[in-house]
Amino acid sequence: MRKLQDLKGQDENAKKREKQIVKTSIIGIVANALLAAFKAVIGLASNSIAIVLDAVNNIADAGSSLITIVGTKLAAKEPDKEHPFGYGRIEYLSAMIISVIVLYAGITSLVEAIKKIINPVTPSYTRQSLIIVGVAVIVKIILGQYVKNVGVKVKSDSLINSGEEAKLDSVVSASTLVAAAIFLIFNISFEAYLGAIISIIIIKSAIDMLKRTISQLLGERNDPKLAREVKKTVENFPGVEGAYDLVLNNYGPDSWNGSVHIEVPDTYTADKLDQMIRDIQLEVYYKHQIVLTAIGVYSINTTNPKVINMHKKLKEIVLSHRYVTQLHGFYVDEDNKSIRFDVVISLDVDDRLKIFDEVVKDVESNFPEYGIQAIPDVDFADV
C-alpha cells in the first residue's frame, strides 16, 4: 500500500509541476505583451531604435513562453509503442526552439542597428517615455528572477532560459535609459551603436543557451550527485559488496532509466539473487524515481583465503598503471585456472586499448598459471 501511495504521489507531483510551468509561462506572456506594446509606442514616437528593438525582444519572450507551454503539454504525454520512454525530451526541444528564437531576434536587431548606423535618425525623448522604460526595467528584473527561480525549482530548462533572457532584457532596457540620458545631457546619440551592442549580447546569450540544450539532447555524463546517491542506495543492501558500471539515461526532466552491476558473494543462490535484484529496483525507483532496467551481477570469492590475497595483489598491480581508476568484477575459478575482472580506464587518455593491453600483460606475467579474462570498462558515473 505504501508503494502505491508513493506512485500516486509522484503522479500528483508531475501534474503540479506541469501546472506551475504553464502558470509561470502565462504570466510571462501577459507581462511581455504589455511591455512590448508600451515600448513599441515609445520607441516609434521618440525615433529610438534601441527601444524598438527592446520591444521586439519582449515579443520574442512572449513567444518563448508560449512554446514552453506547448512543449510542457506535449512532454506530459503518456509513453506509447513508438516512444516507450515517454515524451519528456520534448522539453529540451522547446528550450532549443526558444534559443533559436532569441538568436533570430538578436541577428535581426543587429541588422536594424547597422542600418541606423549607416543612416542615423535623431531620437526625441519625453519624461513620460523614460519613466515607462524605467518601470519596464524593474518589471523585467522581477519577472526574470521569478521565472528562473521557478525553472530551477521544477527543473525546466525552458523556464530557466526564459528567465535568463528576461534578466538580460532588463540590462538592455537599462542601457537605453543610459543612452537617453547621454543624449539629453550632451546631445550625443549612441542609439544605433547601443542597439548593435545589445544585439551582440543577445546573440551570445542565445548561442550559450543553444549549446547547453544541444549538450543535453546529445547525452551528458551522469549527474555526479545523483549517481552517488543511487550507488549508496544500492550498496546499502545486505550482501551487496559494491555497485559499479552505473549508467543513467535521461528522457526529460525527472525521467530516468538505467542499469548497474553489483558484486555479491559467490554463495548466493539464483532465488536469493532474484529477490535482491527486485528489492533494489523497487527501492531505487521509489527513492530516486529511476527505473533500473537491468542489474548485472559480479560473483566474488568469499571463502578462499588464497584468492582473497590474490585479489589484493592483482588490485595493486592494476591500479599502479596510470589512467586506471578502478578494478571490479574480480573472480578466480580454481577449477579452470582463470581470473576474470573489469578494468576501468579514464576517458582522459587517447589510446585506452593500449593502456588495457599493458595492464593485461602485467597481470599475466605475475599470474602465469592462470588464464586472464579481462574487459576494458568506463565509469559513466565518474564519481
Structure, described:
This protein is 65% helix and 14% strand. The radius of gyration is 29 Å and the shape is elongated. The two termini are 35 Å apart. Helix 1 (2-46) packs antiparallel against helix 2 (49-75) and helix 2 runs antiparallel to helix 5. It is an alpha/beta fold. Strand 1 and strand 2 form a beta hairpin.
Short overview:
The chain is α/β, with parallel strands linked by helices.
Which key features would you list for this structure?
383 residues, 14% strand, three-stranded mixed beta sheet, single chain, alpha/beta
**Secondary structure tally: strands:** 6
Average pLDDT rating: 82
- Secondary-structure content class: alpha/beta
| CA gyration radius, whole angstroms | 29 Å
Distance between the termini: 35 Å
Q: Could you spell the SSE succession in H and E letters?
A: HHHHHHHEEHEHEEHE
Contiguous helical run count: 10
How would you characterize the largest beta sheet?
Answer: 3 strands, mixed
Basic shape:
elongated
Low-confidence stretches: none
Beta-strand residue percentage: 5-15%
Name the helicity range.
Answer: 55-70%
The strands making up the biggest β-sheet line up spatially as: 1-2-3
Question: What's the structural blueprint in terms of helices and strands?
Answer:
Elements: H1 2-46, H2 49-75, H3 90-118, H4 127-154, H5 157-186, H6 191-218, H7 224-235, E1 242-250, E2 256-265, H8 270-288, E3 290-300, H9 305-319, E4 324-333, E5 338-345, H10 352-366, E6 371-377
Parallel strand pairs: 2-3, 5-6
Antiparallel strand pairs: 1-2, 4-5
Helix pairs in contact: 1-2, 1-4, 2-3, 2-5, 3-5, 3-6, 4-5, 5-6, 7-8
